[in-house]
Design brief:
- It is a single chain.
- This protein has two domains: 2-78 and 188-211, 3-Layer(bba) Sandwich (FAD/NAD(P)-binding domain), CATH 3.50.50; 81-185, no CATH class.
- It is built from five helices and nine strands.
- It has helices at 18-21, 46-57, 90-123, 144-156, 187-198, and strands spanning 2-3, 39-42, 62-65, 81-82, 130-138, 161-164, 175-184, 204-206, 210-211.
- The strands form three sheets. Strands 4, 5, 6 and 7 form a four-stranded antiparallel beta sheet that branches.
- Helix 2 (46-57) links the parallel strand 2 (39-42) and strand 3 (62-65).
- Helix 2 (46-57) runs parallel beside helix 5 (187-198) and helix 3 (90-123) packs across helix 4 (144-156).
- The protein is globular, with a radius of gyration of 20 Å.
């Protein structure tokens, strides 16, 4: 079952994401009648649009259902980092899930970076994609040991990690984890291009259309 929600207008003076402010508004139609496709993807952020396009490339007919406008919620307000460095997570994953579990997570994160890079190249997307280093740092001596453990855990997982005492920041740090060959980009420029590639040949994007429930066939 689908519902068309009311359009929401930002309040005066409300902060607007740079990524949203520097790209055009989308205007995909709402779903008005029944439609049969191979796959329905609920949510038009980076996960939904990427999954939908990859499915289409494999021959599926796909419909993306978005309650508001695509790439305007979490993805539209993202930090725009493309990185496998997520705070201090690998030492924790090693402790909780062991080497195999942590390796599965690490490998997936690195693969995601390369998948984005490949899609940028495949479609010639002008989205300011730039390779750069990523850092997680501390300004306190008490946290240096945690940084050290994180670097050691990441290195065991074959991640491009190193322990450093300096960063590009305009202030000193006590220590940092550095991951090389990460990236940053303009997420809406990237994803609006993917959306344009998705639509057509039996695949669709429906905005202002909310999924209310799921019915499973016997």
């Amino acid at each position: 079952m689908m519902e068309t929600p009311k359009n929401e207008t930002p309040l005066p003076g409300q902060p607007v994401s740079l990524w949203i402010a520097t790209t055009p508004e989308t205007n995909y139609a709402a779903l008005q009648q029944g439609l049969t496709v191979d796959v329905a993807v609920i949510g038009g952020g980076i996960a939904g649009l990427t999954a939908a396009l990859l499915l289409k490339r494999e021959g599926a007919r796909v419909a993306v259902i978005e309650a508001g406008r695509i790439v305007k919620s979490v993805t539209g307000n993202t930090t725009a980092k493309v990185t496998s460095l997520h705070n201090l997570i690998y030492d924790h994953l090693m402790s909780e899930f062991g080497l195999e579990g942590a390796q599965a997570y690490a490998s997936a994160q690195q693969a995601a970076i390369e998948k984005i890079a490949a899609l940028v190249a495949d479609y010639g997307i002008d989205c300011d994609f730039t390779r750069t280093d990523a850092y997680t740092y501390t300004e306190t001596e008490e946290e240096v040991e945690r940084i050290t453990r994180e670097v050691e855990a990441a290195a065991r997982l074959n991640l491009p990690a190193s322990f450093v005492r300096t960063t590009p920041l305009p202030f000193p740090v006590k220590a940092a984890v550095r991951f090389t060959n990460q990236a940053r980009f303009h997420p809406r420029k990237y994803l609006l291009h993917l959306a344009a590639q998705l639509v057509g040949d039996g695949s669709y994007i429906f905005e202002e259309t909310r999924a209310l429930d799921l019915e499973e066939d016997e």
